[in-house]
Design goal:
heterodimer; A: 264 residues; alpha/beta; six-stranded mixed beta sheet; four-stranded antiparallel beta sheet; 10 helices; globular; B: 296 residues; mainly alpha; two-stranded antiparallel sheet; 12 helices; 75% helix
Amino acid sequence: MISLNGIQITFNPRTALEKTALNNVSLTIPEGQFVTVIGSNGAGKSTLLNVLSGEIRSDFGTVKIGDLDVTPWNTARRAKLVARVFQNPLMGSCADLTIEENLALAAKRGMPRMMKSALNKSFRSYCQTQLASLGLGLETRLGDRMGLLSGGQRQAVSLLMCTLASNQILLLDEHTAALDPKTAEYVMKLTDRMVRDRKLTTLMVTHSMKQALVWGDRTIMLHEGQIIFDLSGEARSKLTVSDLLQQFEQLQGNQVSDDALLLG
Amino acid sequence: MNIVAFSGALELGFLYGLVALGVYLSFRVLDFPDLTVDGSFPLGAAVGAALIIKGIPPLIATGLAAGAGAIAGLCTATLNVKFKILNLLASILTMIALYSINLRIMGRPNLPLLNQPTVFQPINNFMQSWPEPIPTFGNTILLATIALITKLILDWFLQSEIGLAMRATGANPAMARSQGISTSAMVMLGMAIANGLAAFAGALFAQLNGGADVGMGIGTIIFGLAAVIGGETLFSRLSIVQATIGAIVGSILYRIVIAIALQADVLGIQSQDLNLVTAVLVTIALVLPNKLRIKH
């Protein structure tokens, strides 16, 4: 479960560049729910994920994951609860390390690391079965440098890396945006399978409205640092991409002057 | 080149190979341009020499010298990760501070080790009666053994769980943090090891050359970097094992090139030109691989 309470974040406070990234955001996501997040550029989507991962600390408000108040925790400490896939496929792994070394790093996420060899025979065979499940033929390339893989392959491995250690929540930051449509579809299906198999509480930021509605159980829309739209269940299943687009255009055209209009 | 000059070049090559392993750790693994070694190398020499003169056994004195270097590395790392001072600047601050500290430790600008025991004595005594040229290479054999053992330990460390975490810290800090790695702790540890190695080499240097001198650290970082980059040009794609052996081989090649350059009067190069020659060599080593790659 995730609960955000009264999260307030202002970048460059008391300067000309002052920007409120999140304005008194409260959000509760029950365990196992898959939430998609949409919103225009600068709406606060990435900030929302960064607040959960610990990369950005909120000025006010509390962050709870499960029963734990993690507000003062840094990214490294939260790693035992949080797994994340970045938008840029190059960000989620180390290019100069081999595939198996990257997997070994991820297998110890949030756990104490020791002065013992990171790789051994049984871990290698474990890697092979895991990589085989991706269906990309990577199981024969354990010793290849990560940098030799394509963006889609790297993103698939990044996803796999999220599942090697236990975690409670999964954060996906437009993780298919840098991929071609076919690969994006593959990665999305893989994501859905992993989320369902492991019953992960998931937050997925996306630019694609279709993706936002097709996948997951609930959709929220951010605008200027606030959640202006939160749909799940039947109301969500009735919603079409054109409905969403209309919402977007309204926001772009005449700034939200009347909240009731949008929420009604 | 005569045999004495050759063994001298090998001695310095293996000795600075230790510095090169440290520089590989800071520059390459952690991506931390660390000039502290210019201070921690003479720090090791000063601590080692001062302790030996006080009657401490050379082996223990050398170990304590390495420890002093590790503390210097921790200072630089702390300035960087805790106080957010730019890495290069943090290392320069420690380096400058060490100059005064080294003078304090020695009590004067240089500290000769005349007729004092050294770690090299046992092996030299042991080999004394052996046929020439083996005794000439006594120091070389000891230094080569030390450098190779250090390389093997470093190889193993960099493939351990902590070593992987350290490599991730240098290669992709955001990813490292998201995997639960405390990047600050990794920088601290890596810098302590790197400067510990430099000080260890400094202590050995003082015992090899008969004393410590406050100015002996100048250019240490460049010698180390020359070795690392030189080693990298030997291998196209670097694994850890190749990079560390490359650093040592690079260091030896560098010393041999310098020895030849100094002896081959043709260019008129003299010992005072050493740093200029080094700068030119490092520049060539940095530029040449890129030029060659473009042509391919």
